[in-house]
Amino acid sequence: MFGGIISWFTDLFRSLGLLAQKRAKICFLGLDNAGKTTLLQMLRDGRLSLNAPTLYPNNEELQICGIRFRTFDLGGHETARRIWKDYLTAVDGVIFLVDAADRTRFEEAAEELGRLLDDPALAKVPFAVLGNKIDIPVAASEDELRHSLGLYTHMTSGKYVNKGEQAVRPLELFMCSVVKRMGYAEAFDWLAKLV
Ligand SMILES: Nc1nc2c(ncn2[C@@H]2O[C@H](COP(=O)(O)OP(=O)(O)OP(=O)(O)O)[C@@H](O)[C@H]2O)c(=O)[nH]1
Ligand SMILES: [Mg+2]
């Protein structure tokens, strides 16, 4: 309760320019083809772009929900995954994208996500899992994806927790479509309250 009041005042003072702007480092992770670079470019330019698979990490500074996010877009193909850990030191949040329309790769996505969730260095880091591409008619439902990724054992309850109020690592699933510009804003709202 006090945490809520304090964060309300902090947000108010920040919006009045009386407090320095919050900064946060976030990493965009997930298998290749999940839509990480498409999302990052949508956030940056407000439009869709065609991207080749990401070979080298990119970083951008973006203003989202009043926070200066330093974002790292790391490739998701197998060799690129080996360097994820080099970028995860002092990370404030993880955006983990999954292609919700590609059931053939749910198991692989669950394994990679599980590895990250088990990493002691990330034990307190909030994870927003994005079930992307729900514009594709065969995409999994939120419930199916939650089960397929084994999220029930890791989930926090409720999407609207405040920083410091949760006993366990905050983790939520947001269904979205970058192409249709829907669903991901909620994930950043949620993350912005936690970093
Ligand atoms: N239908 C649909 N396609 C999408 C959506 N978001 C991304 N894509 C497509 O998915 C493909 C892969 O997108 P990328 O952003 O390059 O994927 P990535 O996660 O950065 O992949 P790597 O760089 O290889 O790790 C592209 O063809 C995108 O146009 C979406 O919301 N809906
Ligand atoms: Mg990419």
UniProtKB/TrEMBL annotation:
Pfam families: Arf. Its main location: endoplasmic reticulum. Keywords: Endoplasmic reticulum, ER-Golgi transport, Golgi apparatus, GTP-binding, Nucleotide-binding, Protein transport, Transport. It is found in: Endoplasmic reticulum; Golgi apparatus. InterPro entries: P-loop_NTPase (IPR027417), Small_GTP-bd (IPR005225), Small_GTPase_ARF/SAR (IPR006689), Small_GTPase_SAR1 (IPR006687). PROSITE patterns: ARF (PS51417), SAR1 (PS51422). CDD domains: Sar1. Belongs to the small GTPase superfamily. SAR1 family. PANTHER family: RE74312P (PTHR45684). NCBIfam families: small_GTP. This is Uncharacterized protein.
